[in-house]
Design brief:
By secondary structure, this protein is an alpha/beta fold. About 55% of the residues lie in helices and about 10% in strands. Strands 1, 2, 3, 4, 5 and 6 form a six-stranded mixed β-sheet that branches. α1 packs antiparallel against α2 and α3 runs antiparallel to α7. It is rod-shaped.
């Protein structure tokens, strides 16, 4: 080894062996490093793939949730619009039904009053016929009242606030007043302008047979004193003052003359010459309306239009400061029309 001809020197052979061992060692170390590196790369991309799959899945779930939410919102909006449309259609049908009933009732009352105006002093048989006609008219009116009440309930026409301010408050006031003596009622009702304390007003027990309808001014004055003063008709609530909207027995023309220079919504209440009750005269933008108020029973209510019943005349007026009188006209009582002359046109009622 290194001695024969052609042999490599010992030093060269030793160098080659060391170089070979170094390469093998480096190769083994490189293979170990590669295994570690490969494991790291595999883990890295395995984790990255898992994260990407999770992200894609989460994104898909989010999109699906948003789609479902959007679809739900759209469905809710569609249902809401559908019910709103149906409610509006039902409301219009109800309002049209009430308007037609109102017009029909107004025509019936007009012709009834027209016949009464044209008739000569009625005979006993005519009085009986009139009484029967009035009975049927009231029965029909009560049926319309029930139908109108159902429609009002359905469409929430009467708010709780207005009812509390109107009918309920009026009933409470009436019950309190029922506890007063006739002498106290007379003292409250006898409130006329002028110096000195008012004298006592006798309110006798009802001793007269009221005709079926007014036959004279004297009969109307007697009716008012005997039946309306004890109920505080024409007075402001809980005071001795006569309401600014109250008027005596004045004609339709006089009422329109008082209202002609006032704005829409102005009104007055006058004692009627046609029925046992009153007429509410109302100023329109162009013209006037006149509504009959029935006071022949134990309550006050319009004839032929809004059929709500009220304990006092003041309750009726206050109620329609909040709630319209008719659906078609939308009348709200806004500004009372007071007296223009002295003495006031109601002075005969309180003498």
């Amino acid at each position: 080894m290194g001695d024969g001809p052609g042999d490599k020197p010992y030093e060269e052979i030793s160098e080659e062996l060391m170089a070979q061992r170094a390469r093998l060692q480096a190769q083994r170390e490189a293979e170990e490093l590669w295994r570690q590196k490969e494991a790291e790369i595999t883990k890295k991309f395995r984790d990255a793939l898992a994260n990407e799959k999770a992200r894609i899945l989460a994104e898909k779930w989010k999109v699906e949730m948003e789609d479902r939410k959007a679809a739900k919102v759209l469905e809710e909006e569609r249902i809401h619009e559908e019910f709103k449309r149906k409610e509006e259609e039902e409301r219009k049908r109800g309002e049209e039904q009430i308007r037609l009933q109102e017009e029909q009732r107004a025509k019936e009352l007009y012709w009834s009053l027209k016949r009464a105006q044209l008739q000569s002093p009625a005979s006993e048989s005519e009085e009986r016929a009139w009484e029967e006609q009035l009975r049927r008219s009231k029965a029909a009116d009560e049926e319309r009242s029930r139908r109108a009440q159902r429609a009002r309930d359905e469409y929430r026409r009467h708010s709780l606030r207005a009812i509390q301010k109107g009918t309920v408050a009026g009933l409470s006031s009436m019950f309190r007043e029922l506890g007063q003596s006739h002498e106290q009622e007379a003292r409250l009702c006898h409130h006329l302008s002028g110096p000195g304390p008012p004298g006592p007003l006798a309110v006798p027990a009802r001793a007269w047979e009221r005709p079926l309808r007014p036959v004279s001014r004297a009969a109307i004055v007697r009716w008012f004193k005997e039946e309306q003063l004890p109920r505080r008709a024409g007075f402001e609530r809980s005071t001795k003052a006569i309401a600014p909207w109250f008027h005596g027995i004045i004609s339709r023309e006089d009422a329109e003359h008082l209202l002609e220079n006032m704005t829409e919504g102005a009104f007055l209440v006058r004692v009627s010459e046609k029925i046992w009750g009153y007429t509410l005269s109302y100023r329109l933008q162009n013209g006037f309306k006149h509504f009959l108020v029935d006071a022949s029973g134990d309550f006050y209510s319009f004839l032929g239009v809004d059929t709500s019943r009220h304990a006092t005349l003041t309750d009726l007026v206050d109620f329609h400061k909040e709630e319209i009188i008719t659906v078609s006209g939308g009348e709200l009582l806004q500004e009372p029309c007071g007296q223009r002359d002295s003495p006031p046109d109601y002075h005969l009622l309180f003498e």
